[in-house]
Amino acid sequence: MFEKLKVPIIGLVENMSHAMCPKCGTKNFIFGNETKKTADEMGLEIIESFEVDSNMSECINSGKPAIYALPDSIHAEKYRQLANKVFKYIANKDNKQAKAKEQ
């Protein structure tokens, strides 16, 4: 759909695709690792990956964004990193368009 509408796809974001083992820190993919396969097929990167987390579930259920409810959490940091990646993409695209208009 995005390709038909010519909406640029920056990358893929995995949401609750894995859980971290609290004892050893191993990533356990709950539904397999299909996002990586899809990203490769589409020529895209996975720009962020969010794990299943009980604190996030509480935030979602209460309607409070994690970045505000848990500003020092790893999830809040990942949201900030994701936002920065999107902002950089937009800024780079705007710069390229401005240079193209100058020529």
UniProtKB/TrEMBL annotation:
<keyword id="KW-0067">ATP-binding</keyword>
<dbReference type="GO" id="GO:0051539">
    <property type="term" value="F:4 iron, 4 sulfur cluster binding"/>
</dbReference>
<dbReference type="GO" id="GO:0016226">
    <property type="term" value="P:iron-sulfur cluster assembly"/>
</dbReference>
<dbReference type="Pfam" id="PF10609">
    <property type="entry name" value="ParA"/>
</dbReference>
<dbReference type="GO" id="GO:0005739">
    <property type="term" value="C:mitochondrion"/>
</dbReference>
<keyword id="KW-0547">Nucleotide-binding</keyword>
<dbReference type="GO" id="GO:0005524">
    <property type="term" value="F:ATP binding"/>
</dbReference>
<dbReference type="InterPro" id="IPR027417">
    <property type="entry name" value="P-loop_NTPase"/>
</dbReference>
<dbReference type="InterPro" id="IPR033756">
    <property type="entry name" value="YlxH/NBP35"/>
</dbReference>
<protein>
    <recommendedName>
        <fullName>Iron-sulfur cluster carrier protein</fullName>
    </recommendedName>
</protein>
<dbReference type="GO" id="GO:0032981">
    <property type="term" value="P:mitochondrial respiratory chain complex I assembly"/>
</dbReference>
<dbReference type="InterPro" id="IPR044304">
    <property type="entry name" value="NUBPL-like"/>
</dbReference>
